[in-house]
Design goal:
The chain starts with a strand and ends in a 7-residue tail after the last helix. The strands form four sheets. The protein has a seven-stranded mixed sheet, with helices on both faces. Strands 9-10-8-13 form a four-stranded parallel sheet, sandwiched between helices. The protein has ten helices and 15 strands. By secondary structure, it is of the alpha/beta class. Helix 1 links the parallel strand 1 and strand 2. It binds 6-O-phosphono-beta-D-fructofuranose (F6P).
């Protein structure tokens, strides 16, 4: 078969490992031919944004971060950004994507991405395209799967960053606030903070109160620890307050969702009047998405890439691979659209609380 493949949304360590798993099994076991669609869905909308993907193209890419196909989170065919009277507006151009799929002679399309990319894939499947999916995101917030590749790598980066902040925080007796990605889910912050030994963990699922955090910081000083580490999700917010938005959705045509950012600064401003120690904010930002995938992510991504071909073989379009209860399985693409959140009554939160970690509530 002639299959198209694209990587959409924010990049994430392991994307190249998926491509390698897909192309290797696809060529070696099934004799498929692959067409790389460049820059996410943009490659289905604009001419000359494709490349052949023979075995030679996927050689040596297993440990590489990013994606050899490029990606975009502003090229939704159903809300495609177009300039009308000098202004960028969103227009439904999904018919262009459908036409181009046929012009390229594709018999199937593999979409590798987060909820945005997968739900566009689902919409295209409803327009008659043979779409199958592979979930990815460092945020780990997709309801269709227990784990996404990229998450383990990002948690490792966060833990290392917190380790490094610890030594400088201790030396200067400062309060270090570290702002962590994850959109509206706190998985990255919770796991990164547990791995790094943060003192306060603020996640979107538990709105925080500045007074509770001030109490915790003062209590630490009384007990002899003159420094503290606060891990805060970009999506965390004070009770009764709002999430810190860096850019509104309407200012990013084609993206459809806000860009979060600034929660660390909001928190620091709330704490500063009540705390003697200096407070410094570190925004980890895209460091969390860059670089080589961890061994665990390489394995998961490779398995996902190879397993997608079971869906193609069985003509189970509009489905994606997933990992549930430790087993690789399949689920509908529609399932991927639901967001997953930290269980605030779950073991990790309960045990963290029992060890004296504050959730700011
Ligand atoms: O979904 C992955 C993610 O890194 C989120 O954690 C973050 O909110 C968002 O993407 C940032 O997107 P961008 O790279 O477009 O700023």
């Amino acid at each position: 078969m002639r299959l198209g493949v694209l990587t959409g949304g924010g990049d994430c360590p392991g994307l190249n490992a998926v491509l390698r798993g897909l192309v290797r099994r696809g060529v070696l076991e099934f004799g498929h031919e692959f067409v790389g669609i460049l820059n996410g869905y943009e490659g289905l909308m604009e001419p000359r944004l494709t490349m052949p993907l023979p075995l030679s193209e996927v050689k040596g890419i297993l440990p590489k971060g990013g994606t050899i196909l490029g990606t975009s989170n502003k090229a939704n065919p159903f809300k495609y950004p177009e300039r009308v009277d000098g202004k960028l507006v969103e227009v439904d151009r999904s018919d262009v994507a459908v036409k181009r799929y046929h012009e390229l002679g594709l018999e199937g399309l593999v979409v590798i991405g987060g909820d945005g990319t997968l739900s566009i894939g689902h919409q295209l499947a409803q327009k008659g395209l043979n779409v199958v999916g592979c979930p990815k995101t460092i945020d780990n917030d997709l309801s269709g799967t227990d784990v996404t590749f990229g998450f383990d790598t990002a948690v490792g980066i966060i833990a290392e960053a917190i380790d490094r902040l610890h030594t400088t925080a201790e030396a200067h007796q400062r309060v270090m606030v570290v702002e962590i990605m994850g959109r509206n889910a706190g998985f990255l912050t919770l796991e990164g903070a547990l791995a790094g030994g943060a003192d306060v963990v603020l996640i979107p699922e538990i709105p925080y109160r500045a007074e509770a955090i001030v109490r915790k910081l003062k209590d630490r000083v009384t007990r002899g620890s003159k420094f503290s580490i606060i891990a805060i999700s970009e999506g965390a917010y004070p009770a009764g307050g709002e999430v810190a938005v860096a850019q509104k959705a309407e200012d990013i045509p084609g993206r459809g969702v806000v860009r979060l950012g600034g929660s660390g600064k909001v928190l620091a401003d709330l704490l500063a009047p009540h705390i003697d120690a200096e407070i410094r904010v570190t925004v980890l930002g895209h460091l969390q998405r860059g670089g080589t995938p961890s061994a665990a992510d390489r394995v998961l991504a490779t398995m996902y890439g190879a397993m997608v071909l079971d869906l193609v073989r069985d003509r189970r379009w509009d489905h994606m691979v997933c990992l549930r209860e430790g087993r690789l399985q399949f689920t509908s693409l529609a399932e991927s659209r639901k967001e997953r959140h930290v269980d605030v009554t779950g073991d990790k939160v309960r045990m963290a609380r029992s060890m004296g970690i504050s959730f700011g509530d």
